[in-house]
Specification:
alpha+beta; 2 helices
């Protein structure tokens, strides 16, 4: 008998002969997901104008 298990939107077929270690490896392979690298976006923004003037200009766009 084969069971079908859906983990994180992906399917794993499980038979009675499968070992726990093999099942754990299969689930681990599915659970690896790329995450956002926040360090890529950290840093300073160099504005060519005064920060207060830029802020007022951006807020004025909504009106």
């Amino acid at each position: 008998m084969t069971k079908i298990v859906i983990v994180m939107g992906k399917t794993i077929h499980i038979s009675r002969r499968i070992k726990k270690e093999d099942l754990a490896k299969a689930v681990e392979r599915l659970s690896k997901k790329k995450r956002l690298d926040a360090r890529k976006f950290c840093g300073l923004v160099k504005w060519k104008e005064d920060a207060l003037v830029a802020q007022k200009r951006m807020r004025n766009e909504w009106s």
